[in-house]
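Possible regression after last week's pipeline update?

I re-ran a chain I had predicted before the update to compare outputs. Posting the input and the new output here so someone can diff against the archived version. Not blocking, just want to make sure nothing changed silently.
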Amino acid sequence: MNNFIVSALKYRPATFDTVVGQQSITKTLKNAIKTNHLAHAYLFFGPRGVGKTTCARIFAKTINCDNLTSEQEACNVCESCVSFSESRSYNIHELDAASNNSVDDIRNLTEQVRIPPQIGSYSIYIIDEVHMLSTQAFNAFLKTLEEPPKHAIFILATTEKHKIIPTILSRCQIFDFNRIKIDDTIGHLQNVAEKENISAEIEGLNIIAQKADGAMRDALSIFDQIVSSSGSSITYANVIENLNVLDYEYFFKLTDLFLEGNIWQSLVLFDEILNKGFDSHNFVNSLSKHFRDILICKDQQAIQLLEVGPSIRQQYSIQVGKTSLNFLVKALEIVNNCDLKFKESKNKRLHVEIAIISLCNISGKLIEKEPVEKIPEAIKKSDDAPKKVHTNTKREVQNSIEVKKTENAPSINVEKPTIKKISSIKNIAQSLEIKESNQKIDSINGQNSNVEESTISYKTNTQSEKFSASKLIEAWSSYATKFCSTKPRLFNILNSNKPELLDNFVLKLKLENQSQESSIRTIQLELLKFLSAELKNSKITLEVEVTQNTDNNRPYTNSEKLSYLADKNPLLKRFSDELSLDFQ
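New output (post-update):
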């Protein structure tokens, strides 16, 4: 079995002409060789996988070539070229700064620089990942880099130029390598596929190029991965399946649903996307890119920015005629806001679904759904249960209740008392007695147990015994202890504010603010009910008053506390002003 060589090594460029996507840099280097204007130090800077080290190796080999071609390329025949190709050249030295970053390593390098080349005119030192050198190593390297021997040329390569000290940068010619364009990546992948006898769809190679993000080495690695999975044929379906990329068809369908105002089908399609294992945040980013691509297609000059295959480009040209510019601008704004607030949201799915609903609402023509004709049996029985009380006999009602013992739906049409409009226990009892007399439910047993319990709880205490203020405070404190562990704030309000007993069993409660009043209002009915039972008096009423006296307001903020203390002690205010203290 032959040893497999990855495509990134097998098809690594060996000449300037085979370097992909860096034509301006290769042209400059070739002209420097042609005119013999060679600097003593170069810095190749750029993202990973764009050809920095490859260009450094080609440049080093070409400099020492004895028989340059007319296009300033290495001949690959002379002894210098052959020794370099066979990795036995003593004129070209490669150093990995990531593992040789100390002062001692640089000292060994400076000692080695003194040795003249055995073959050729120059000794080239390629230092990869040079930003990994320590500050002391950089300083030790400065003198040698500034005034090296005439035969020494340094080529530094890095992905993080900002980590290199300025004194090093000032001694080098800097070449910025760009990310490789998608079209250039696709062209190179097509050449590799042709040489490997692999059939590849343009759309599939386009996805590989986008996934590589401008790095040719990454693109070739993904290419090998897809070939290992799909064999000698690379298709669009295989690529999106292996790379876990969402198909463009979903975005075209969703955009059509947004234009129709179809909320329900949009949510169903989003659920299908999630069930396939795609992340909702990536979905939002991909959807925003889709709207951006449609917007680009609106102009013939900007359409060149569309980085998709021919068939997908055709789908964009069809959909761009359906969408208005106003729709696209609003859609991009909605999706962008969804992306910005995604991390803050606790319910990620609901956050995205709200954005989808907003997108459907842009067109202003939401599809109204008709009532569901076919209702599930369980829901249908639950809905029919209340109606049987008015039309069926007592026996049928009891049978219906036995079937649904676990349901709490009332069997009769009983109206509950409106608690907010009743201020005393006596009025509540009278109201319930009137409503009970109007409803003839004596023949139905056990159907309104909740209503009967409520009626009993209000009717048991219809007495009007007198009580003292001390007994009132004792009952009040007893009620407050119920909230000691469950609602400590409510406990503090009740415990710190005691009512005053007035004539006709009126309780007057003074509170400090509206917040306390709101809390008391929520338990007012239950409180009156409790006091009525404890004090055996159903005529008790409660009046709540919020005090407006600002002298009793408690200071909360730092500035209020300082003002409060300064009023008591003027020297504190003087002390704060003289020292310019800030209490905010």
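Follow-up from reviewer: compared with the archived run. The chain has five domains: 7-176, 182-242, 248-360, 378-459, 469-552. Marking as no regression found.
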